[in-house]
Amino acid sequence: MKFKAAVVVTLKESVLDPQGVTIKEALHHMRYNQIESVRLGKFVEISLDASSAENAEKLVHETCRKLLVNQVIETYKLQALSPVSQKEA
Amino acid sequence: MKFKAAVVVTLKESVLDPQGVTIKEALHHMRYNQIESVRLGKFVEISLDASSAENAEKLVHETCRKLLVNQVIETYKLQALSPVSQKEA
């Protein structure tokens, strides 16, 4: 069965985010002073093949821990995992 | 009022994603052959000050169109917009 997973990877709260700060400052220069902070993360969309939703979930967590996420400074959340019909795939 | 918005910025379907391909190939080297494709996007968390939820939403869309999103190759989705209690802020 085909599945599609959406994973959000964000920096831990305690970690400085210079990219986010730069975006915020750019917005302030554009007179959007109502913006108080911006933090930038990654959004990863994974298409995979697995025998069950359970296995698919396990596989996504494994890839996150082993490759996608640097757990020293980042956290991740599996936002969605849904089967894809063969027609769509 | 303080609001927090979550925006997901992704490449359009028709646009090649070399970063995603690299991640997929790395996963294949690690024997995760069930992974069929990976696409990488951005996740932006914005904290802002606005008089109403409607104004907050308008502001987020404006910042997306004017700075955060390159609409030639990317699309974005406002995933969530919620008020933040003063205690949390």
Any overview of this molecule?
- Chain A is of the alpha+beta class and 89 residues long.
- Chain A has a single domain (2-84), classed as Mth169, Chain: A, CATH 3.30.1280.10.
- The first copy, chain A, is built from 2 helices and 3 strands; from the N terminus they run βαβαβ.
- Chain A has helices spanning 18-29, 53-68, and strands spanning 2-11, 35-49, 74-84.
- In chain A, strands 2-1-3 form a 3-stranded antiparallel β-sheet.
- Chain A is elongated, with a radius of gyration of 17 Å.
- The N and C termini of chain A lie close together (10 Å).
- The mean pLDDT of chain A is 95.
- The A-B interface holds A 2, 8-10, 20, 23, 26-27, 30, 32, 34-50, 59, 62-63, 66-68 and B 2, 8-10, 23, 26-27, 30, 32, 34-50, 59, 62-63, 66-68.
- Strand 2 (35-49) of chain A pairs antiparallel with strand 2 (35-49) of chain B, so a sheet runs across the interface.
% residues in beta strands of chain A: 35-45%
What is the total number of structural domains of chain A?
1
CATH homology-level superfamily of chain A: Phosphoribosylformylglycinamidine synthase subunit PurS
Largest sheet of chain A: 3 strands, antiparallel
Question: Mind telling me the CATH class of chain A?
Answer: Alpha Beta
The multimeric state of the shown protein is homodimer
- Which runs of chain A of at least 5 residues are low in confidence (pLDDT < 50)? none
Question: What is the molecular shape of chain A?
Answer: elongated
The level of helicity of chain A is 25-40%
Structural class of chain A: alpha+beta
Number of helices of chain A: 2
How many angstroms separate the termini of chain A? 10 Å
Compute the average pLDDT of chain A: 95
Radius of gyration of chain A: 17 Å
CATH domain topology of chain A: Mth169, Chain: A
Strand order of the largest sheet of chain A: 2-1-3
CATH architecture of chain A: 2-Layer Sandwich
Instruction: Name the chain pair whose interface involves the most residues.
Output: A-B, 33 and 32 residues
Order of helices and strands of chain A: EHEHE
Number of strands of chain A: 3
